[in-house]
Amino acid sequence: QVQLVESGGGSVQAGGSLRLSCTASGSITNDMFLGWFRQAPGKEREQVARLDWSSGAPVYPKSLVDRFTISRDKAKNTVYLQMNGLKPEDTAMYYCAASASLNSWLIGQPSYWGKGTQVTVSS
Length: 123
What we know:
Elements: E1 2-7, E2 10-13, E3 18-26, E4 33-39, E5 46-52, E6 58-59, E7 68-73, E8 78-83, E9 92-99, H1 102-106, E10 112-113, E11 117-122
């Protein structure tokens, strides 16, 4: 079992920055993927970023690669999401997720989820 706890959400003005943190506990193994999804009201959940826990190699959707950066601190079992140049359309609940299956991640069904942290960007 894996437990994920997010922090760092909040309200910012457009153009601002936030850094989200996700601390994992339990059975985190090197074959896992950790990262972030988000869901805005009335919209489908979308993938934001993930990384390979072993190598730290990040993957982003093309629409976010220039503004978001995912990283990890293995010693702290923590994943970070640095978000710069925030836009009102980035407003959403951001969820940390973990999965040992890449396929599960790609279909939006990782095995483990945090409770989420709200990010609100005002214009």
